[in-house]
Write a structure and sequence with these properties.
With 323 residues, this protein is of the alpha+beta class. It has twelve helices and ten strands. The strands form three sheets. A five-stranded antiparallel beta sheet has the order 1-2-3-5-4, with helices on both faces. Strands 6-8-9 form a three-stranded antiparallel beta sheet, covered by helices on one side. Strands 7-10 form a two-stranded antiparallel sheet.
Length: 323
């Protein structure tokens, strides 16, 4: 491969049509919403699951966004977690409010208000990067200290013996090097190992973080307001964590993210090694299982996404640290 993989984040999912969902779920949704569902648009193309996700028009004039998954899908738990978490988040954060949930013995659906908006970062522009950065600063302020109970530290969620050990295991010969990366990628694995050793101190924090902030979990509406969606991976960590994870792809699209780090209050007085340790951890996470079939309920685009993120995070670190 001569360059980074190309991923169109508006077309990464394989979602069912409304007509294929069970009538029992249709009926449960109508009851939960207090009105009939008169028209349902095509499913969105973003994301990496096979869960249903589409706008819908209601008989009472409202427009909503419906997500649904059966119990065999990873998204089933994710949608339940989102329905639990979103009502607890601070009102200062722009999140589409949840207007109802519905379930059958096999299916769960969560319904939120519709937001007329678009995804940033496909590719990143300076204007969108500025809007998203300001939103990340606002969210970090609202989430520090953590307003929710019982969140686990981000590092705990990764688990022992998991993806952060991937670079060391590749070096040891226990795992193959993933395909489709830069020719020099193997050479920088020892640097990733060294940075990841900082994780326990670098990732410590009392802020609630989104934990999965990507452009396809962000929306910019027609007024230029940024909304954050898909709140099902919340964890405890430092307030800068979500924003730093956006920088490698923005850098890949020509944004001066190193200057942004120097300007942002999120990273003031934060050791540079801590920032780099986080992006080294994400690079390691993306190397994990990159050549394996996607897990049940996830689409093949997940693995191309992993390669693109591994590529851009490694590039970002190599340039920033002079490897």
């Amino acid at each position: 491969m001569t360059g980074a993989p190309e991923v169109d984040y508006t077309a990464t999912s394989l979602r069912p049509d409304w007509t294929t969902l069970p009538a029992e779920l249709h009926e449960a949704l109508a009851v939960a919403l207090g009105t009939e569902i008169t028209r349902v648009g095509p499913s969105v193309g973003s994301g990496f699951t096979g869960g249903f996700a589409a706008p819908a028009h209601l008989a009472d004039g409202r427009k909503v966004f419906i997500k649904a998954a059966d119990e065999s899908m990873h998204a089933h738990h994710a949608y339940q977690r989102e329905a639990e978490v979103v009502p607890q988040l601070p009102p200062a954060i722009k999140i589409p409010p949840i207007v109802g949930t519905a379930h059958t013995p096999e299916w769960f659906a969560v319904v939120s208000e519709w937001v007329d908006a678009r995804m940033p970062g496909n590719p990143w522009t300076a204007a969108d990067f500025a809007v998203v950065t300001a939103n990340c600063e606002l969210v970090a302020e609202a989430m520090d200290p953590c307003p929710l109970a019982d969140l686990q530290p981000f590092l705990d969620d990764l688990g022992e013996g998991g993806p952060l050990e991937t670079p060391a295991r590749i070096i040891a010969g226990d795992l193959p090097m993933p395909t489709g990366l830069q020719p020099w990628a193997r050479d920088v694995l020892p640097h990733l190992v060294d940075l990841i050793q900082l994780a326990p101190e670098a990732f410590a924090g009392d802020s609630a973080i989104h934990g999965d902030l990507r452009p396809d979990n962000l929306l910019i509406d027609t007024t230029g307001t940024c909304w954050t969606v898909d709140w099902n991976w919340l964890a405890l960590g430092p307030r800068w964590m979500d924003w730093i994870g956006l920088l490698p792809m923005a850098h890949h699209h020509g944004i001066d993210t190193f200057a942004a780090i120097r300007r942002s209050p999120l990273t003031a007085d934060v050791p540079g090694d801590y920032l780099d340790a986080y992006n080294a951890a994400i690079a390691a996470y993306m190397l994990h299982n990159a050549d394996a079939p996607p897990p049940p309920g996830c689409t093949p685009a997940l693995r191309e996404h992993q390669r693109l993120f591994a590529w851009t995070f490694l590039d970002w670190l190599k340039t920033r640290r002079g490897w």
